Amino acid sequence: MAPHKDAKPASKALVTGVVVFYLVAALSMVMANKWVLNVTSIPLFFLWTQLTIASLLFVISDTLRILPEQLAFDLETCKGLIPMVGLNVLGLSFSNYTLKYVDASFYQVARGLVLPFTVFTSFMVLHSRPSLRILVACGVVTLGFFTGVLLDGTPISLIGVFFGVASSAITASHSVVIKQSLNVVNGSALALSWYTNLLSAIVLLPLLLLVGEGPDVVKLLFGVDELLLKPGAMSPLRTFLWGSLITGVLGFMMSFASLLSIKVTSPITHMVSSAVRGVVSSFLGMWIFHDVITGGRASSIAIILFGSLMYTWVKHQESQPASNLSSSKGAYDRLKIDVESMAESKPR
């Protein structure tokens, strides 16, 4: 169609800027989360503050008319997004619990089954039959996961691994729900991000009280532990507030970056940047939090990255015979879900 023919490819500077921002933001999210979770015992309240800050920034931006479209709030739309919000709350909560119980350098290993779970979910729900080469790539990633869990060489938290596996399974389910959710908001990724942040914050508030974080929240906010601090040490409350502000702002900004990245980057760029992010996060965990990178852990990360890159290459090759427009778009949508959330933070 004419719009596609006339559209100019993004400049190298723009692509580089988007990728670099995503890398820096995602790494900052993981490190800030780990920094706060090391000194607090309220991962759900921490997540609630992040979502609340991001929601408030959406409202402020909408008031100032700096968003590309106007935000709205409709109860019928909220009802249609219940599955998406439920998965988002569970996925982000389990990701925070994973990061609380495992080292920052082990986080990628603990959540290493996202790709195999995504392929399995696509097969079971969407009846998308994977090729033999896709199955081999998933097998390599799975091998990397078990290499890290069984051969790490240092004591690892089994509950952290459990939350990592559960988080991976829920992240994979997003690939099924996200299309339906976009239909509910008339295809607007910005509206979906706004509703997801706001509704997730609303759902999390009673949930964090049900799991018993209330007393720890009161203890943190009223500075009960500050009398035990060493002179010059940052209090848990200050750490919590700074961490919440940093991750809340980054989560909001990544909502816009994701929209831009859809237009200017490719699936391969996403997967390569994800691979770089995994390696850098391991070194940052070793440098900032003094994590130990054993031979087993390094081997695990390398195998998972190799399997992920193999999957990306295979998907790229398999998309070539089809129509360039439809196949590349379809491959992009699926790969974007595979790579993100990783995020993340939260993945957002």
UniProtKB/TrEMBL annotation:
Pfam families xrefs: TPT
InterPro entries assigned to the protein according to its UniProt record, in alphabetical order: Sugar_P_trans_dom, TPT_transporter
Membrane protein topology class: Multi-pass membrane protein
Keywords tagged on the record: Membrane, Transmembrane, Transmembrane helix
Keyword RNA-binding: no
Source taxon at top rank: Eukaryota
Places the protein is found: Membrane
GO cellular component: membrane
Record flagged with keyword Transmembrane helix: yes
Chain segments annotated as transmembrane: 12-30, 42-60, 105-125, 132-150, 156-177, 189-211, 240-262
Protein name: Sugar phosphate transporter domain-containing protein
Organism listed in the record: Laccaria amethystina LaAM-08-1
